[in-house]
Amino acid sequence: MKLLxxxxxxxxxxxxxxxxxxxxxxxxxxxxxxxxxxxxxIAPVKRELQQKDDQVKNWIxxxxxxxxxxxxxxxxxxxxxxxxxxxxxGYTSAAVSDFLSKADSYLIxxxxxxxxxxxxxxxxxPGSRSKIKIPDAGDAHGISSISPFEMLRRNGVRx
Length: 159
Known about the structure:
By secondary structure, the protein is an alpha/beta fold. It has a single domain (3-154), classed as 5'-nuclease (Rossmann fold, 3-Layer(aba) Sandwich), CATH 3.40.50.1010. The chain has helices spanning 8-15, 24-35, 43-49, 55-67, 76-87, 93-101, 103-114, 134-140, 148-154; strands at 3-5, 39-42, 68-69, 117-119, 145-146. A 5-stranded parallel β-sheet has the order 3-2-1-4-5. The longest helix is centred in the middle third of the chain and has 13 residues, at 55-67.
């Protein structure tokens, strides 16, 4: 089981507590863990992260080949399950459209297809109808999610 990283496992740390200039250990560990097959992310997350010209984009250009799995047509069935679930669980059409147009739905599909766990900073909002959160979608499909902090703890990382 790999840990699949959401975009916010890259963006939020880079902008806040694991900034590149003060906590390179986080980024070095991610690169090493990816090379060892412990963590990964997906091409849709990579595309989202490359939209800004910043340090995360630069880091991806250096280390992305070992972290980001390519697009995979074999997730089509899983993606269909995710889309069907999103459309039939009382979410607004705007929430469903937003969810299906972003990497979040693909993370769920990849995790479902490959039996992976998702690393995200999103928290559950089971009563929400205006936004589909990764942990809620994951719960509905038997996929667990953990925070980047928990990912580091479970892997014995000390920064």
